[in-house]
Each structure stands twice: as structure tokens, then as C-alpha cells.
Structure prediction request, 246 residues.
Amino acid sequence: MTSQLVCRPEQQLPVGVLRVSGVLDALTCAALDHAVGLALSAQPEALLIDVSALAISDPNALDVLGSVVCRTAEWPAVPIVLCGARPATARTLAAWPDCASVSTAPTCAAALADTEDEPEPRRIRVRLRPVPDACRQVRQLVTQACRAWQRGEIAGTAALVATELVANVVRHAHTTMEFTVGLRDGRVCLTVRDGSRLLPRPREPGFGDAGGRGLQLVRELTDAWGVLPVADGKVVWTHLTAGAAV
Prediction:
């Protein structure tokens, strides 16, 4: 069986739809990983992945699918739905560690109907220039959003984390950025997308040295964080719940 995989995005917002067809194996898994990451970087309200035309070349390829899809399941406020999955595929995903947030649906049409019935997630998205005043703007935005969403107890923590994320773009990326704060399933989610492909690393000299503890601070104050590389830069994401350290 020829190793060929086609990942075709059919919709980005408000719900992302990605059609996957062809053969999934060790050679084509990188293409799936890239396509899923790109779809998530648009930060849709949900991501539907249609695998009804996907052929699994061998049992190991099921593990490949689980690895790709479940690894991205922590992406803040973006539920992932696998549409048209065959029974063996659905069972593999159900058994895969840390994959509880990935669900299945018989078709993408059915999944789209379900998302329309769900409450609209709370989300505010702004574009910011890489200037020092962006830190003040985002700090004020996050504080006001948390209080409006009855999450005032973590407003200070969330504002501090948001400031560090934006400050890193100002100091190092020097590109226009897109900042998003959202609330879903009790989690306050913060993401920053910039135009630099330089990825932050733990204990990297210079990350936040000019005004705080940088990445170490982000790691300490959030429940989870991550970096999603995309073709034109990267997205750094975090999420925290009520009761996080202040």
C-alpha cells in the first residue's frame, strides 16, 4: 500500500474541520501532526477530524494516530472530535493515556450539530504591536475578563502570566502578536501567537530576564503550558484553574 496522506482543511472558524484521507503509517504521521497543529493554531471553538477515508496500514499505525491526536488534546479550550472512526480506531483512542478529552462522532455533520447546541465559549482576542505598552494592555484585559467571568480569585495570577508571555514577544520576537484569553470548562486559557519561529526553552537565558522570572514563572503558576510551532511562527499556550497559586 503506497504511503500517501492528504489532510485538507475545509473550515477554520468558528469550528475547524480537517478531512484526512489516504494511508497513515510511520512515514505519513508527520504530515498529520503538522496538519492538526496548523488547524489548532487558528484556535477554533472545536476541531473535527474526519478520518472516515483514512486507511490504517498496520496495528502500529493506530498508536501513531493516538499519539498525534492525544498529544494535542491539551490545547486550551479546543475540544477534538474524531469523525467517522472505525471501531478499532475508537477503541484505541479510548485506551490511550491522557486522551479523555478526545471524543468520537459518526460523521462531521453530526459533530457540527452537537457543537451548535453547546454554550458558546467565552473568548477575547486582540492584536498587539511589539511595544512595551502591550504588557499593560494585556494585563488590564485579562484582569477585566477574569472578573467579568467570576474568576476574580485568579485574575492577578492570570494577568501576571499574560504579561510574561507578551513581554517575551516584545523583547525577543519583535513581531505583531495575537493574544487570546478564554474560559472553558472552568479553565482560564491564555495564548500568544507571534511571527518568530524561535521556540522558548526551559531555563533559556533571556526569557523574561528584563522584568520577571520568565518561563519559570509561567511554569510555576499554570496548570499546563506548551508551544505549538506553525509555518509562520509559533503559539505559546497556558491554562490555569480557580485556586491556582497567587
Q: What stands out?
A: The chain is about 35% helix and 30% strand.
